[in-house]
Each structure stands twice: as C-alpha cells, then as structure tokens.
From TrEMBL:
SMART domains: ETF. GO terms for molecular function: electron transfer activity. Residues 23-211 form the Electron transfer flavoprotein alpha/beta-subunit N-terminal domain. The electron transfer flavoprotein serves as a specific electron acceptor for other dehydrogenases. It transfers the electrons to the main respiratory chain via ETF-ubiquinone oxidoreductase (ETF dehydrogenase). This is Electron transfer flavoprotein subunit beta.
Length: 249
C-alpha cells in the first residue's frame, strides 16, 4: 500500500517572524525555512508503517516554489521513497492545496494520506479536512496513535479532556498531532541517499487544478507590545491593585 505525505515549506519554528513594513504579509526574505513540524511527524509515521511492512511506498508531496525541493529532500532523508513537487509561484491557499492533493490521490491511489494537523505559518488547520471532503474519504484528525490492520486504520485522536479512538475504512485521511511520534534525527548518509531518490516536478495545470486564491489578506500586524510591569511593596497593595486596577478580584 502507498502512503502520500504532503509536506509544507514554512518559516522555521525557531525564527521570530517579522511583518513587512507595508503590513501586507510576513517577511520571508532571508529567513530560514524548514519542513512544517507536524509534517515531519507525518513523514516519520509513514516511514515507520513502511518499516513495519504495512506500507510498501511513501510518497512525499509539496506544493509551492522551487525551493520546496529542499523540504522534499528532507522528507526523503527521513525515509520517503520518492517525491512530487507541484511547482507554483502563486500563493497557494488551503483549498487550492486540497484540490491539488485530491488530483494526486486520484492519480497515485494511496491507501493513506497523512498530513500535519496544521501548518505553523497560516495555522489554518483546513487542508486535511478539505481533502477528505473533496475526495469523499473518511478522516481522523489530531492523531496520537495510528494502527493499520485488516483493511482498516484505527486512530486515537486528541480531544478536549481525553482521547477518542476511531476505526476507518481505507483509503483514509489522517492528520498528525504532536504526540504521535518523535521524528528521527536525519543523518548525513541518509541525506546523501536522499539526493539519489526520484523527484518529479509538475504544475497545478498538469493536474487540471485552478489555484487562484479565494481569500484576500487585508492586513497582517504584529501582536501589540506588552507594557512594562510594576513592582508592588507588599501583598496588601497587590490585592488592592487586583481589585481596583485589574478588576479581577
Ligand atoms: P493548513 O491547513 O494550511 O494548516 O495545513 C495542514 C497540512 O496540510 C500541513 O501540515 C501539510 O501536511 C498540508 N499542506 C498545507 N499546505 C501545503 C503545501 N503547500 N504543500 C504540501 N502540503 C501542504
């Protein structure tokens, strides 16, 4: 069985993002970019399923600019077998990505599609759900445990105050939560091996997908600066201030 893993190139989670002076977007010029952390977990899970003999092939796919090739090479260094770059310089919103992925699902016929629960740049948490709807497939989001057996996949999901276990027929869409696994460290020999693995490049139009944005960003702003705190001499003053100024007591 094949597993398709969509991986997004995003601003590295250690980078403090800056907004462009005109407030139109986040400035990504000269900023370190990496694979979305939830997608690393998705690749790790898919590779573990292949190593366990459950899957036969793991295909990583990324939609975006040419540099997404680096993200795909990382996915292959973790252990994906091959990669597809759906190249586009346009802004790709979740619906456009979901349409591209739907076309690839039709073409590749994977039994599982494992996505991240959200991309840390747009925090949309939409693509997996939209893909499941477009492809008419069952979905289990926020997965913390995945078990494939007897033509079904059992997924433990993180929900408020606990965990819920779903059993889905295959093919199915899964999105990963943080506790699903801890991705392996990418070693130099595996980075070298990944350079030789196949990578196909196609355009959204080759899949018959129109990626025209549906949403317009009106303004992007930094969070307001926190104002400086004050020191109080004793508990009595603190309680007084909490009552009169903060009005929380
Ligand atoms: P989002 O709905 O934007 O929060 O993204 C959720 C997940 O969809 C990500 O963790 C990725 O697995 C996948 N995804 C979103 N955008 C892309 C993209 N441009 N290329 C590949 N996968 C993507």
């Amino acid at each position: 069985m094949k597993i398709l893993v969509p991986v997004k190139r995003v601003v590295d989670y250690n980078v403090k993002v800056r907004v462009k002076p005109d407030g139109s977007a986040v400035d990504i010029a000269n900023v370190k970019m990496s694979m979305n952390p939830f997608d690393e977990i998705a690749v790790e899970e898919a590779v573990r399923l292949r190593e366990a003999g459950v899957a036969t092939e793991v295909i990583a796919v990324s939609c975006g600019v040419t540099q997404c090739q680096e993200t795909l090479r990382t996915a292959m260094a973790i252990g994906a077998d091959r990669a597809i770059l759906v190249e586009s310089t346009e802004e790709l919103q979740p619906l456009a990505v979901a349409k591209i992925l739907k076309a690839l699902v039709d073409k590749e016929q994977p039994q599982l599609i494992i996505l991240g629960k959200q991309a840390i740049d747009d925090d949309s948490n939409q693509t997996g759900q939209m893909l499941a709807a477009l492809a008419g497939l069952p979905q289990a989001t926020f997965a913390s445990k995945v078990t494939v057996a007897d033509g079904r996949v059992s997924v433990a999901r993180e929900i408020d105050g606990g965990s819920e276990t779903l059993s889905l027929t295959l093919p199915a869409v899964i999105t990963t939560d943080l506790r699903l696994n801890e991705p392996r460290y990418v070693t130099l020999p595996n980075i070298m091996k990944a350079k030789k693995k196949p990578m196909e490049t196609i355009k959204p139009a080759d899949l018959g997908v129109d990626v025209t944005p549906r949403l317009k960003t009106l303004k992007v702003a930094e969070p307001p600066q926190r104002s400086a705190g004050v020191k109080v001499p004793d508990v009595k003053t603190l309680v007084e201030k909490l009552k009169t100024e903060a009005k929380v007591l």
